[in-house]
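Narrative summary of target 7.
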Amino acid sequence: MQKRLFAVLLVLPALVMIVLFFIVPLFASIVGAFEVGDTLGFGNFSKSFELYLNDMIFTLVIVAVSTTLICFFAIAIGGYLTLGENPRAVALLRWLYRWPMFIPFIVVGQVLRTFLAKNGLMNNILVSLGILTPLQTVGFLDWRGIVIAFVWKQTPFVTLLVAGAMASLDRSTIEAARNLGASRLRILIEIVVPQIASTLLVGLILSFVTMMSVLSVPLMINAQSPTMLTADIAFRINAHGDYGVANALGMISLLLTAGVALIYLRESMKERA
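Modeled conformation, tokenized:
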């Protein structure tokens, strides 16, 4: 009994932290989403869908497109790190691809806002090289800029997981395929990717949830409508003090991520089993 009591006491601080800073705020937000004046109802949700339905669709499309591109680039980079035959190129790529992981999202938004603007660094370089004229330049401070920011920031995270999983594979199957004349692309698609699919899925799910919660990037890059739900939540609180609609939008975001979160939990349970 003393050992069990000691174990409970060791776990108790972590449980208290989880309850106070995660469970209680989540419960309060859920209750607040249904509070309409002094009563409970679905008025906040009706108002949310009336005002921000396009933003909900916009958010899902942006995050889905970004997740798809992250998947493609993570497989490509991880595949070259595993199957590449140029040691210098592999070493350089291994050194370079991780850098965006250490940059906060707010810095990513500021950097890409400076780079992707109509008179930004990218267009200035293209004009100086004679590829474009000043009248032909186009800014990317819209949905494209958000996608670029998300892909640039989250690809290294997924690549790190994928490259580690690829490095731990049994090389005998890869060498056997090479001896039979299979190309590197075919080896990657038919042999390597199926074996690291679960790791890739977990990385993409974590990136999906992360991108759904980012506020700084849509505020700094896409200051127009439609925008992402995180910007709408901040607007309802800061401009109107409307916590009911803000909580309802938070609940909708939670439901949008619940499906992928369940997939992540199922994969985690499989790995533990």
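Residues 75 and 193 are 8 Å apart (CA to CA).
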